[in-house]
């Protein structure tokens, strides 16, 4: 990561290192900027929300992370830049990576509105394990 920033002519600051670590430490949960800030601020009390936004934007522009709009209300940041799809929880907004081959998904030629068609990103919505448990609990009581 230090190498990455140097290669791009960006200064390696402790703040940037911290944010990058937070993104990867999140175990694929695709945090929002606010969630990154909460964790980064806990690790480094001098961290400002502004720095977090700026750094996330820089990293996204460099193509080192993906900014995703998954319909959860705020942009989510994904350090995984491989081609992959997502499972999104309707209950708590948790996001998980999904590796599956959807290359067979096709847009019929008469439905393309003149578009050339590239890759498909598939988002499945449902409930995560926690939210399923909570729902069951509510049903019983
Ligand atoms: Zn959930
Ligand atoms: Zn992802």
Written overview of the protein:
With 141 residues, this protein is an alpha+beta fold. The chain has helices at residues 2-7, 14-25, 33-43, 49-61, 129-140, and strands spanning 66-68, 76-78, 85-89, 95-98, 123-126. It is 38% helix and 13% strand. Strand 3 and strand 4 form a beta hairpin. Helix 2 (14-25) packs across helix 3 and helix 3 (33-43) packs across helix 4 (49-61). The model has no long low-confidence stretch (mean pLDDT 87). The structure holds zinc ion (2 copies). One zinc ion (ZN) binds at residues 30, 78, 80, 84, 86, 97. One zinc ion is lined by residues 89, 91-92, 94, 127-128, 130-131.
Summarize the SSE layout with pairings.
Elements: H1 2-7, H2 14-25, H3 33-43, H4 49-61, E1 66-68, E2 76-78, E3 85-89, E4 95-98, E5 123-126, H5 129-140
Parallel strand pairs: 3-5
Antiparallel strand pairs: 1-2, 3-4
Helix pairs in contact: 2-3, 3-4
Bound molecules: zinc ion (2 copies).
